[in-house]
């Protein structure tokens, strides 16, 4: 998401806020919520939700429906659209059918607790079974990477290859910037009525929200990811009884994420004492400017996976967004080397080859 120097700047700012409260009062207030968690409505507890999904079809390229399907799993604050361009381009290159889902509490999928890796892996297991796939190739980024790893370990027969994008199978607290981003979204939600259009449902003042979020997130691209969660059209409310149309502005239940400290859960990793090692191909793609897959964490993969290959990129946490061309090439080569070698570059429309 940002460079090592950027991470250090954030750390310095946070340190100043806590050690110089008298001189940094206005900045400290940004980190203090204006709302009470007691006023936040609880979410239902549901062991399984039906995930919203989409096939990412390539442009004017015929795919082979008999090839193993590829399933993309997005990260925190992401959705189906996170891998839209990459997914369509990948399908054009390798000729596999490519799909993406909205994980629970993201995009247009249902809102429900618990939001744990074990439960999200079960959602994916059920999705694969509903599609009647024998197996699939899983590609997960960040939170989605941990979900993908959990699926491969709990339901190994359903996964033929695993691609892990910038995360590791161990517990490590999320960077404080993620907490700032979430708090900023919550503060927008608290005053949601200010940003509604005349119909009191959809959000219309996106630029105003973007300006407000600069107090919490300096990076413009990251703010685009956050505002990508806004409910900007009526289809976001279709058959959704779990959303307060007049008050809520984000498709994610951001207030519940704050109330239940979901980010702490997402920084964790479940205890898996009885699980067998996954022996099929695993490809770990990570940014060399990201904290998530630092070299000292590579050993964590060998606790669970026997056939691991690492590939670093000159990027931060958002590898596919920062290095789309190289990401696509490396991913296609791993998934289907034969199709990769035969591919003609003029067939890619979404990402430059």
From TrEMBL:
<keyword id="KW-0378">Hydrolase</keyword>
<dbReference type="GO" id="GO:0052689">
    <property type="term" value="F:carboxylic ester hydrolase activity"/>
</dbReference>
<dbReference type="InterPro" id="IPR000639">
    <property type="entry name" value="Epox_hydrolase-like"/>
</dbReference>
<comment type="similarity">
    <text>Belongs to the AB hydrolase superfamily.</text>
</comment>
<protein>
    <recommendedName>
        <fullName>AB hydrolase-1 domain-containing protein</fullName>
    </recommendedName>
</protein>
<dbReference type="GO" id="GO:0005739">
    <property type="term" value="C:mitochondrion"/>
</dbReference>
<dbReference type="Pfam" id="PF00561">
    <property type="entry name" value="Abhydrolase_1"/>
</dbReference>
<dbReference type="InterPro" id="IPR000073">
    <property type="entry name" value="AB_hydrolase_1"/>
</dbReference>
<dbReference type="InterPro" id="IPR029058">
    <property type="entry name" value="AB_hydrolase_fold"/>
</dbReference>
<feature type="domain" description="AB hydrolase-1">
    <location>
        <begin position="69"/>
        <end position="323"/>
    </location>
</feature>
